[in-house]
Each structure stands twice: as C-alpha cells, then as structure tokens.
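Retry 2 of 3 after timeout on previous attempt. Resubmitting structure tokens to design endpoint.
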C-alpha cells in the first residue's frame, strides 16, 4: 500500500515536470532574445540600445569570455545578459504567482542576479554576495530540513 502511494506520488511529480509550460516559455524566450540581439548587431540597431545603456550609467567593460566571439562585441553580450536576467526574473514571478507551476526558485533568483550583475557591470560586488547567499541557503536547508 505504501509502495503504491510512493509510485503514484513519483508519477505525479514526473508528469508535473513534463507539463511545465513555464520552463518551455523561458527557454523559447532566451532563444528569441538571442536572435533579437544578434539581429540588432547585424542590422546596426545595437547602437540605439547601447546609447540607452550609456544614459542609464551602466558600466561598459571588457568581459573575459567575449574575446572568443569576435563577431559581436561587448555591448551585445551586455544587452543579452541584461535581457536574460530579466527573463529569469519573469520566470520567478510566474512561478510564485501560478500555483500549478510553483517550484523552488532560489536557483533561478541567483541565476537572474548573476546575469543582471554581469550585464550591468557590478559583478565584483554581486559575485561574492551570491556565494555568501548560496552558502547561507545550504546551511539553512541543512538545519531546517525535516528528517
């Protein structure tokens, strides 16, 4: 009897993950955003986005991982990272508002903060704070976890 309940619970869990519309939408949004950014680079529209970023006093800097991709510059990477962070924040909001798609969102929040901080140029401050937050979350989970 207990074995049947465990199997039924596992089946419900796997079905829920297979029907997770939010994950599909987020994946598609990342691909669409990448396509929009690359199209903006190819059509020389990225200058408009770059001027908006400069008006917002967002730091422009040389990212260490941009050099292997010479066909688009640092500005394109920054715009993509900022948009990616916003997409992940939208996923967090959707998961918190819609009970059917509710899951743990700590990892998604950390990913969003990482992408936004890389895109906005504040990685030197936010990077160590993310490490502290992850360590604290691991400790809290260890203390709170029911055995």
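Retry 2 succeeded. Sequence:
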């Amino acid at each position: 009897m207990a074995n049947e309940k465990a199997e039924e619970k596992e089946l419900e869990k796997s079905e829920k993950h297979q029907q997770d519309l939010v994950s599909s939408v987020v994946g598609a949004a990342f691909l669409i955003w990448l396509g929009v950014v690359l199209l903006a680079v190819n059509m020389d529209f990225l200058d408009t986005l770059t001027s908006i970023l400069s008006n917002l006093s967002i730091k422009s800097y040389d990212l260490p991982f941009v050099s292997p991709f010479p066909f688009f510059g640092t500005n394109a990477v920054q715009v993509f990272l900022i948009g990616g962070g916003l997409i992940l924040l939208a996923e967090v909001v959707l998961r918190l508002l819609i009970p059917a798609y509710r899951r743990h969102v700590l990892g998604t929040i950390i990913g969003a903060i990482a992408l936004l901080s890389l895109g906005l140029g504040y990685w030197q401050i936010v990077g160590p704070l993310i490490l502290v937050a992850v360590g604290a979350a691991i400790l809290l989970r260890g203390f709170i976890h029911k055995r």
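Attempt log closed. The chain has a mean pLDDT of 77.
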